[in-house]
Amino acid sequence: MATNPSDWNLRRFNAAMAVLHFLQGALMVYLSSSREWTITAVYQEFDTTTETLSPVMESIGTIELAYLAAGFLFISAIAHALIATVLYDRYVAYLEQGMNPYRWYEYAVSASLMIVLIAMLAGVWNLGTLIALFGLVAVMNLCGLVMERHNALTEETDWSSFIVGSLAGVVPWITIAVTIVGTYSFGEGSPPDFVIAIYVSLFVLFNLFAINMLLQYRGVWKWKDYRFGEVGYIVLSLVAKSLLAWQVYFGALNSPV
């Protein structure tokens, strides 16, 4: 397949992103102190004295925080490596159609892991809730996939998928905010400053992805070229993942438990 210089630049750019994400993930695993976080589940137990059902929280396992932080970096590294190699021709063909399904498949997993990590740092440890948050962010990103596929076939932009994805994507942030506010209101202490910094910075960055898509479909300035928006997604992904990983490292993983 014949490709233009900008496509070759994107190929090199994806290869560089694969290396950067992989190196950061490897450093995260190598440098981090071990820190296991408890995963809980809630079930109903019948109280024979009051003859009522009461919720009971039970520890069902632990997860290594460093592996969770490194996980989304490795997932992104694999995706960029595949795009720069075996998937490159298909990648270019998709770009010509104004879409990149591979991006959304990767985000559906990596961004969902990111929201789970942010939620756990804020104090959301219930397995059912974490699964729901993972699923909502996955749906949000798959709505991005549907947005691109559908609008590749229409002359006028249909924003339905964008709106549905935005609604799905905002729920996890509200859930996490409720937990943070609850800690301030009813807890004996307050969340660490780095957790608040993570919440604010990643919330802003997650919204920049939506703005990038908005500018693409509005055809604003250089976003008229789909490849410019593609570079925007790649840069935002690197910044968001790197910022989250290293804020977690310096806040929770760089000292013995």
UniProtKB/TrEMBL annotation:
Signal peptide: none annotated. The chain crosses the membrane at residues 12-31, 65-88, 104-124, 130-147, 159-182, 194-215, 227-249. The keyword Nucleus does not apply. Keywords: Membrane, Transmembrane, Transmembrane helix. InterPro entries: Heliorhodopsin. Pfam families: Heliorhodopsin. This is Conserved hypothetical membrane protein. It comes from Halorhabdus tiamatea SARL4B.
